[in-house]
Amino acid sequence: MKSKRVILLIIDGWGWGEKNISNPFRLAKTPSLDYFKKDYPFCLLSASGYSVGLSPNEPASCEVGHMTIGIGRAFFTILTKINLSIENGVFFKNEVLVQAIRHCQKYKSRLHLVGLLSGQNQIADTNHLIALLELAKNLNFNNVYIHFFTDGIDSPPKSALDLIENFENIKKNKNLPGEIATLCGRFYALDKTGDYYLKTQQAFLLLIEGKGKLVSDIREVFKEKYASSNFNDSILEPTVIVPDAKIKDNDAVIFFHHETKSIFQLANSFLNPDFKEFPRPQRKNIYFASFTKYLPEVDYPVAFVEEEIETSLSKVIAENNLKQFKLIDETRKDLLTFYFNGLMHKENSGEIIKILPPFANDRESLDERTKEFFSYLKMAVQEKDFDFIVGSLPTLDIVGHLGDMSLGIYFIETLDRFLKEFYQISFENNYALILTSDHGNIEKMIELKKGQKETLHNPSPVPFFLIDKAYQKTKSQEEIYFFERKTMGSLSDIAPTILDLMAIKIPRSFTGKSLLKYFKR
Known about the structure:
The protein has helices spanning about 30-40, 60-70, 80-90, 95-105, 125-140, 160-175, 185-190, 195-210, 220-225, 265-270, 315-320, 335-340, 365-380, 395-400, 405-430, 475-485, 495-500; strands spanning about 5-10, 40-45, 110-115, 145-150, 180-185, 215, 240, 250-255, 285-290, 325-330, 350-355, 390-395, 430-435, 445, 450-455, 460-465, 485-490. By secondary structure, it is of the alpha/beta class. The model has no long low-confidence stretch (mean pLDDT about 95).
């Protein structure tokens, strides 16, 4: 196949929603998009859940969407890897986790499970803790102590007691081992300001020496605290429920955070052999493990290893001595200079990056910036010097987050007019033009059940258009109907498709597949 030069236009926040009153595309006039859909290859791509390395039905963020497009595969977060391992049973055979319990069995010692108790899962997930207790039960081990850090930031300010009671109910219903031994607010345990002496040390000494306020009834503690209007779960002072539950010689400790930054200081206090922030009581023969790597320079058991990204679309194009042009605005530049490049800030050879001023969220500014965006894109095409051009336009995502239906209709129609002129220029300069998105947003601006604005990303599939003379073919209404309703692939298929068009060998690390096989010429 003869190689093509390719333009990739990522229209941020453009999902393919339902045909109802929540969708501004239902009311907007889009003759250009209607023409593209009828006469050129068109399909839907998944932009949520496992297809982009996230939990089921979780919509992609801009970062995840651009990264998946750029590296040609789903990059599974540690959170997703853990969830998948629990789902398929691999979690319960994880050597690092099993070894922690075997260590305790060998030395007749105790297992300590340490982490945040939260109603959200940005930092730690209670379901992961439940899985750890199930693992202990499977291995007939009962001597387990749980050390919770109370939230109050990602969770409501006074929700710890409800979360504790819910956890205890699950544990009871499943007949799981484990006893809540200590509590401590995240203000102390998860400090990220470098305040080791006044904050991190308090949590460390609670765990290692049992230093804290001794209580006999968790519920009474919170009833007293919640009586104060100024109290927040995050500032709960170090609290001891089981006096003898401190970490002793021969014990095992598992930190169950899947996020690395908040736990760094506390993990550093335990694991860094060169630690000097405060004096540390010494413990012998402790098996320390964590769900993911918190300290890059320290060697210790880690249950789930972060994936490595071998290459990216931009890197492959550069290695083929081709030139590429990237266009994005200042506030989102990392999307094309870091995430799209596979979490690498390094510029590729033959790569030109144009950074536009930020897009504001008012109509006048969005009009001006959108016009400027297409003006620079046209100039790049007309230079005839670039083999690959990628632009990321934030207009529809910004409007989607505003939840303004009339503004949504206006900018959809504005985009359609710009696309009419732009695709003609692309044709004149012998480029194949791909239109797609990173996630859904603007296509659902009303939550119909509640009758209120919907301003968040959603798990809708996103459109994929290939506008190229070589693939022009008019579809019947039945064919259009089919492609509007069937998801044919995912965001990870875009990079292989681009390389296929450019007649470049697709790397083995790209697990996505070229979509060209679906489009007969």
